[in-house]
Specification:
The protein is of the alpha/beta class. The protein contains five helices and seven strands; from the N terminus they run βαβαββααβββα.
Length: 179
Amino acid sequence: MYYITENNHKFETVRAFLEKHGIEISQKVLPIYEIQSSDGIEIAKSKAMQAWEIIKEPLFVNDAFWIIPSLKGFPGPYMKYMNDWFEPDDFLRLMNGKTDRTIILRDTIVYIDENSQNVFTNDYCGEILENKYEGNYKYPIDAVVSFSKNKKSIAEENGIQKFSTEGSWADFAKWLKNK
């Protein structure tokens, strides 16, 4: 089974997790076009279907997107662009006057083979902080979002890798074992 991703770190994290469940995967990089849609699940399904059309072997893709309920779901699947365009203060300005500072990271896995297409999702709920983290960060959103009870930013917690083997990944592994 193939994990369709260019991201070697994501591949190694998921490979190690699935290996603990007796599941072996290989990485494959394919020329996949990302459709423009406000629906992140449809984007992930499209990627899986494109990959299937190329290799016609069991595979899965993974995509994540962000939802800010007080901003009517913005930015959704556009977070990649937002991280290119915005600085941490820009995200904070978007929240001016908002009492609900909830942010949701929706992790999506789409598996496809000759018989089926299955979707696994998990939501990680966090909050947009009142102030940005002043240290180093990989992405601007990392300096202003927290998923921890102690309200430390993603950057302070050294990234969101801890999520990659919870929720949808555990459900996916269980499903594969029983397939």
